[in-house]
Amino acid sequence: MANETKKKLDRLGKDLVKQISEKKNPSVEVPIRSLSNIHFNKQKRMLEMKSGKSKRFFFNVAHVRKFVQTTEAAAVAKELLEADKHLSLRQTFYKIKRTIPGTSINIVDEQSESNDAIEDLELIIGAPREKLNINANKNGSVAGHVVIKDRGDTIDWSRLGSGGWAIPSNVENIEFKKVNAKFVIYMEKAAEWETLHEDKVWNKLNCIIMCSQGQATRGVRRLLKRLHEEFKLPVYVLVDGDPWGVYIYSVIKYGSISLAHMSDSLAIPSARMIGLTADDVEKYNLKKNLIKFKDIDKKRIKQISNYEWFRDNKPWQRQFTKWKKLGGKVELAALTANGLSFMSQKYLPEKIRKKEFLD
Amino acid sequence: MVDNIAEKMSKGLREISVAEFFEKNRHLLGFDNPAKALLTVVKEAVDNSLDACEEADILPEIKVKIVQKGEDRFKVIIQDNGPGIIKDKIPRVFGKLLYGSKFHKMQQGRGQQGIGISAAVLYSQLTTGKPTIIRSRISGKKDPHEFHLRIDTVKNEPHIIKDFVYDKNFPDHGIYVEMEIEGSFKRGKRSVDEYIKQTALANPAAKISYQNPYKERFSYPRIVNKLPKKAKSIKPHPYGVELGVFERMAKSTHARSIAGFMTTDFSRVGLETAKQVCKLAKINPSTSSHALGHDELEKVWRNLQKAKLMKPPLDCLSPIGASVLEKAVLKDTKCEFVTSITRPPSVYRGNPFGIEVCIGYGGNIAKEKSADIVRIANRVPLIHEASACAITKGIKGIDWRHYKMEHNNGIPSGPFIIMVHMYSTWIPYTSEGKEAIDAYPVILKEVKLAIQDCARKMGRFLAGKRKRHLESKRQSLFEKYIPELAISLEKLSDVKKQIIIDDLGKIIKKPVVEGEVNGK
After folding, report:
1. Whole-structure pTM over 0.90, yes or no?
2. Same domain for B208 and B275?
3. Coil, helix or strand for B13?
4. Containing structural domain, residue B106
């Protein structure tokens, strides 16, 4: 595996050197990562990347910086593969960062630049970041009746105290020993996860609970996908009642715009949203907890409701209309107002029993 | 009752003295405020010196010194190396208003009224009570002479206080004038400093040294060792002569007939034309013009205005010269680029005139401001009333963006100097203050054409400069990144980085590289 990625990196380097020796302006083709180059596959119900590519040249004032950032990222990845070591995105940023001698120019100034370069590199050579030995920060917890094996250690997700198992950024090499659950609930907030974990909801409902903070990281999404594919577990998504929550759900289900090329291994088209819905606001008496939409929220609702994968979805269009009418958002934390264990004892069991999901 | 009033009024009637005349007209003469008065005194003296030197074929060398004597008192000293003035004439030149050789002469020259230097003497006398000191020498064989002069303000006659042979060292020829005046010294665009600087620009054959009240010395060396071609005196062209002047000339002419008057006292009037004009005015061409009354002369004048006449001769003018202007601007500003043009002469209302323009960029011209505008009329800098002047209007009428030059309110922004010289037998000032040129359409047009010509060349230079700048910026940007790319590629491909650097260096030399579409 590692060898194959290394070969791809070698090929990139050799190709560029060949171009240079032929006195050509060295260039690489980078698939375009933007909405304009995204296609919604209605059969597979997931986002796909179209074939749009842009050519990036070294001798172009507007390209040269990104060009060097990308080749530098490739050089770092090759070094990691050869040494069989892993670095985080942050560490990779520092590895790439250096000042060009005699100038005040840094190869990268912000981590967002090295992150971008790495994402471009993934697309250029057609290998995911994990295979480049570059990891995201681990950022997620999971609990449930599951036993796994990771680097030789056996880990029982039901016996890890208050913190649960911290999900690593690369879950490819995890081996599932025992999985005893009927479904997975993914939530966007660590606070809610901790409450549900405290209430041992995974035991009561016989499920797995998983969270990350905000947008699900790749490691979390891969773990969700593997549990869904390998054990046929339904995935339910629990997010804030606002456009940002809706988009977190959208990414888990259909894939993201920037990683559309990896939808096959990340998207879970059958994932469903459990809450919070606009109907919950009335049903659970949450109106008093509405936070008025800002202009940016309204703009985002409009944008999301126009995405191809939501546009023809009647229940969802009904949700968007209703949210607009409500004029505000509701956070998961607001459910606490209805009782300390409201979510684990009433909200979730009721929703699951009644199969009240948005698809 | 009525008689009474008339009697009372007649008691008020009396001859007014020159002092009163001066008091009432000081704004016309350039003495409206203390700062301007100081400038005017310097200006009148310097103009006279330059004119005298040129007339005598002497390369001018002028020293100007202003010494502060009190809060609002200054001593102004001007010395030139001109021909000097003969002893007998000195009192009248300096001590009598409206005495001079320039009035009514159709010749390109600095002053036009013969009022300048004596007005300065009068101003000095009225504000400080001190006499003006004049030293003059006309040749090394004769002694220099010193006068202490005042003006008898009742009679408009010079009043000599002292008159003696000056026995100290004095150059072979030249004039020294010293007067004490009330004034105020200001810095900036309308300062004496600026006037002297611009005078040096407009008179590249002159060597000028100057010391201001702060004891700062400025020295403007001679830029060309050749005096400008002497302007020729021409007879007035009928189109530029007003009725009143026409009548006065008709009364004082030596010609024996009205037709002869027209052909001999004016340029471009032939005998046939004169006869035709007389015919149309129903006047016998052989009548003496002295015998004609106002109505008849007016008829002649009107028909003469309508007659089809050739343009006045244009070779009577003397421009500074485009290349000389460039040298002057270059020397003063050390500018990066300079361009200039002398337009062929043209005519407004029967007066020949020409426009020359010089535009410079960079060097020690201030970067942060609008362009320095130097307005020159017959080699005299115009300091006040910029906005009323045809030159300023012409500059503002240019679409500078067309030449890729930024502008603010019509004046280019950035390190530019725009020097415009109008030379003519008669400069049409907007007022007696002689500060702004009247914007006759043809003058405006010539100013614009000249500026546009220079702006085009300047625009080309700036475009090239921008391109070179971008090109070198682009080049140096790539040069910075080349070794970095080579480091990455060496790791990726195991090809030695020096080989990669050398190859990339060869590609960069190619002027246009494929893919370089947005070379911004």
Report:
1. no
2. no
3. coil
4. 18-220
